[in-house]
Amino acid sequence: MTTQLESAKNGNITEQMEQVAKDENLVPEKVRQLVEECSAVIPYNKGRNFDAIGIGRMMKTKTNANLGTSQDDRDIDNELLKLKAAIDAGATTVMDLSTGGDIRAIRKSIIEKSTVPLGTVPIYQAVCDVVEGGDRLEDLTADTLFKVIEQHGKDGVDYITVHCGVTKESIGRIEKEGRILDIVSRCGAITSKWIKYSGEENPLYEQYDKLTEIAKAYDMTLSLGDGLRPGCLADATDRGQVQETIILGELAQRAQDAGVQVMIEGPGHMPMDQIEANIILMKRLCNNAPFYVLGPLVTDIAPGYDHITAAIGGAIAARAGADFLCVVTPAEHLRLPDADDIREGVIAARIAAHAADIGKLGNGTMDADNQMARVRKKLDWAGQIKRSIDPTKATAYRESSSPEDESVCTMCSALCAIKHGDLSETAK
């Protein structure tokens, strides 16, 4: 069975391409072309069955919500509540980043219940298996890591984050330049420590062909992770970040040549004035592969509100060409998020994505906003709630404060601007 990319290169339109074309208001042949040129991907494991989604050029900006246990919170039921919250709030994909409990069982439970593409970071399970077996993190072997990656493919994972660009060379760039926060990516830190301890090169870089063989067997999309992403504004756009991206661009081309779909992950924390330049640079270095950003967060001083700092950065990034926004919750930097945090984060990311798409895509992306304007003019409250990005919250606010005149709201009451500002002939 061929991969989505191989099918596209052979001139064949798959069922998944048909689905994406319908959702994106594109003709199927255009979707095939976008996949063939590697500027769009369709994460879809051969063993799964759901409505496929596309990520990339000419497509709506997508959002991903991260789920997963930690060693302090291993409750599978909580993760399933988060999964439901993410999907109900409109997340395009979810990732299971579990590091506590029976990680494979948790993953299988999420896959069974998920109606959207699922991503994972296999090294988390590999390291946890080693440590829980009584060994040290540094005792992880390449064989163990590749066996876990294969397991994720067999279980039905649609895309995996692999930090292949954390190498002796890219780590050396950071050490020479210096950083305030050094390495903040969990996988970046694990890989860096392993390289330092063993004296060997990152196996995901050194044995990259083995990785692409496994990915191809299950048609798992590779999300080439940014293990050296900046963790604070001061560290943004430094030599380590750029060197890692250069490596990822080279590896992306090798995977694509092998028939494997690829996305590139990006920063991180970044001042607003650097975001657009970063997106342009990263896209250029990676041959316009779909770009997946964590935020970026535009300030470091808003713990508890980082869903807002990420949405600001995400809107700028998506408008500049980023294709996929990672949800950041209000709990970021503070604790493991719960279902409510996931919901808040997803809505914030969706707002950022939609705002960017209005400027980036045109093509009817503002239709929903125009519809909202029309029902607002009519003071049609049910219509406004129905068309809002979060009808649950809109309903709660409306019901919490009842006006004497039900046609208006308690903000303006009898002085309602829309009612008195109606310029139509009827109103006159």
Give your account of this protein's structure.
By secondary structure, this protein is α/β, with parallel strands linked by helices. It folds into two domains: 4-360, Radical SAM ThiC family, central domain (TIM Barrel, Alpha-Beta Barrel); 367-420, no CATH class. It has helices spanning 4-9, 15-24, 28-36, 76-89, 103-113, 122-132, 142-155, 168-177, 186-198, 203-206, 208-218, 239-257, 272-285, 306-320, 339-360, 367-377, 381-387, 391-400, 417-420; strands at residues 40-41, 55-56, 62-67, 93-96, 118-120, 159-162, 221-224, 262-266, 291-294, 324-326. Helix 12 links the parallel strand 7 (221-224) and strand 8. The chain starts with a helix and ends in an 8-residue tail after the last helix.
Q: Please identify the structural class as seen in this structure.
A: alpha/beta
Overall form:
globular
- The CATH class assignment of the largest domain is Alpha Beta
Our measurement of the CA-to-CA distance between the termini, rounded to an integer number of angstroms, reads 68 Å
Q: Which value, in Å, is the CA radius of gyration?
A: 23 Å
